[in-house]
């Protein structure tokens, strides 16, 4: 409780533009991963420093003899995502370290503890990225290097909340990675992918408890697909800042589904209800025949847990040019839709598997969270 009050007042002061200390100058809008430890290509001495912070090392198992080309996008997406995460946690650590308004903690022990944990997370994310990059390099496949990034977060509550959301999506996406590798006969890296999946799950439990949510979200976590993760990441990348064309990664990029209900989807109540959405279909050719119509033939399709995709028809479609707002039912009760649901706007309403949704998607993802909240017991409440 004390913590909540301190943060609320810090945020309020930041809003009032109280003069900030000299070291707390706002960061440039385009954030680059700080140089210094050699990431993403550390030399052996630099890697030893990263290992030390990460409490562990890369695998020393020999790489698989071959990897199916169809599996390259899996590692490219993992590297693209981990590069973003490295940037995000670097920025968060800088902000906390420098006491940027909104990122100040109520006591120096809390600050030290959080920085200690985040430094380890950052080093672990670096090793996740390096692992994917090494795999790609080994097979002479394109390996994404870091872009410049932008974050929509301006205080610690928003930052932890965003970390919880994108980590949750990663937990679904790594399921898809394991599935694709298995389908392609690339069994070699499956153990490592699932090892990092569990690791991200440990992080997720920590972020959730900081946010007064139960750390374990569902019995079987919500799945996701690679294309939706790649699409979601685009909002954090400064357009045009990647040192490679985005189509070097053979995954589609869909426009986002903006969730208008429940504080942008982050605080949706645990009940059946209609949710409102908005989508900009300006660059989506496949949407032509729906533009200006009533929404007939369009669906919101949800991933929730390990349930088969759940589709509901959209209603109340209202168009402004190619931007559409609409409503769709959120069938909470019948499907126990606690935790994360991943919404897409689709042209079909019947799917036999999550992977089938991509081919019928016009826009994705929209993230919806329904929380089973708890009281934090140590006063460390964001
Ligand atoms: C760090 O602070 C800057 C300036 O307020 C902000 O733009 C950025 O989003 C913050 N970083 C994170 C990860 O929240």
From TrEMBL:
Keywords recorded for this protein, A-Z: Signal
**Signal peptide positions (record):** 1-19
Q: Which domain of life is it from?
A: Eukaryota
What name does UniProt use for this protein? Late sexual development protein
Lineage runs:
Eukaryota, Fungi, Dikarya, Ascomycota, Pezizomycotina
